[in-house]
Each structure stands twice: as C-alpha cells, then as structure tokens.
C-alpha cells in the first residue's frame, strides 16, 4: 500500500466536473474505498491502501453524480505483494520480546544503507505493521512482560 495509482480513462469516461470517481478494492477479508483526484480529463490518481495480506484483489472504478445511481465504470485486478517491509514487519511481530532479534539492528549497522533508504524502509515497515493480523493479546514486549 501507500503507492500512487494512476487510472487512465477511456474516451467515453472522460472526467466531467460534476462526476466523482472512487476506487473500491475488494479482498478476501477487507474492502477499501479510496477517493480519486482528477489529474486531467483523461486521468485520475489515488494512493493505494494498506492491506492485511498479500493477495490479488478486485478493483472497481465507480462514478457518482448527484441525483444519479452509482455506476461501476470498470473492473480490474490489483495485487498486494510481499516485499522486504512486509517481511520485516512479520519478523518484528514474531520476535517481540526476543532479545536475540536485536541482532537484526546490528545487521543494519554493518550494512550501512543510506539514511534516506532507512527512513523509507521505516515508513514502509510501519505501514505494513499497521495492517498485520495480530492476536488481541499481542504486545511489543512479547509474552514476558517483566522486561524493562
């Protein structure tokens, strides 16, 4: 999630001033509805939502106009893929409370990625973490809450 998506409209679907377009992403367990921004009469853009798993979802481009029913203009598939941010978020969630997991930070210190890359990865891991399916009793300290 959190990437820019551009939608190219067909000649028949060019953007009129009183039409509002939005995208509906339908996955196996979660549905997202996102607004769009008109770039020009033939293009829209939005930000892809974060999702709770890696899967292919159905995306419907919908149009609404006051006084008219909502129309599904087009449908397409969209794939949420597993990346290093998703892997890192799962690793961190699984290793909560595990002192040995801190060795991962030593790896980052040794590899010394550029600061901009670390900031970008941090943002992506935080986004992925927000969408992980975690048990209600999960916490950052793990099972042993006596750690300081």
UniProtKB/TrEMBL annotation:
InterPro entries: Rho_GEF. It comes from the Eukaryota. GO terms for cellular component: actin cytoskeleton; membrane. GO terms for molecular function: MAP-kinase scaffold activity. One of its GO terms (biological process) is regulation of Rho protein signal transduction. This is AKP13 protein.
């Amino acid at each position: 999630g959190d990437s820019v998506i551009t939608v190219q409209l067909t000649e028949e679907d060019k953007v009129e001033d009183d039409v509002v377009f939005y995208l509906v992403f339908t996955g196996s367990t979660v549905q997202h509805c996102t607004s769009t921004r008109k770039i020009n009469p033939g293009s829209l853009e939005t930000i892809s939502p974060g999702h709770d798993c890696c899967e292919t979802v159905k995306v419907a481009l919908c149009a609404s106009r006051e006084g008219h029913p909502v129309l599904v203009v087009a449908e397409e598939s969209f794939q949420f893929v597993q990346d290093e941010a998703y892997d890192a978020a799962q690793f961190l969630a699984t290793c909560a409370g595990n002192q040995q997991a801190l060795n991962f930070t030593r790896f980052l210190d040794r590899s010394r990625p550029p600061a901009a890359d670390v900031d970008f990865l941090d943002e992506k891991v935080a986004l992925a973490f927000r969408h992980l399916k975690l048990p209600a009793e999960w916490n950052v300290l793990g099972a042993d809450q006596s750690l300081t």
